[in-house]
């Protein structure tokens, strides 16, 4: 099971068969941009500290 991120939500428990989604997963509450990074296990850096 994996994750799926779109402009609408971050979903966990996504099931795929190759590129086909079998199960869309469950949306995870992500009220801030930082919370998206945390849930995905990626270190958060504020926009002004990111490479352009």
Estimate nothing, just give the exact number of structural domains: 1
Largest sheet: 4 strands, antiparallel
* Rg (C-alpha, Å): 13 Å
What order do the SSEs take from the amino end to the carboxyl end, as H and E? EEEEH
Output the CATH topology: Beta Polymerase, domain 3
Q: How would you sum up this structure, described in words?
A:
The chain has 52 residues and is of the alpha+beta class. The protein has one domain (2-49): DNA polymerase, thumb domain (Beta Polymerase, domain 3, 2-Layer Sandwich), CATH 3.30.210.10. Helices cover 15% and strands 37% of the residues. The protein is built from 1 helix and 4 strands; from the N terminus they run E-E-E-E-H. The chain has one helix at residues 33-40, and strands spanning 2-5, 10-17, 20-23, 26-28. Strands 1, 2, 3 and 4 form a 4-stranded antiparallel β-sheet that branches. The radius of gyration is 13 Å and the shape is elongated.
């Amino acid at each position: 099971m994996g994750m799926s991120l779109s402009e609408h939500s971050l979903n966990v428990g996504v099931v795929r068969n190759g590129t086909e989604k079998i199960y869309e997963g469950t949306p995870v509450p992500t009220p801030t941009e930082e919370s998206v990074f945390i849930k995905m296990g990626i270190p958060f850096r504020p926009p002004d500290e990111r490479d352009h």
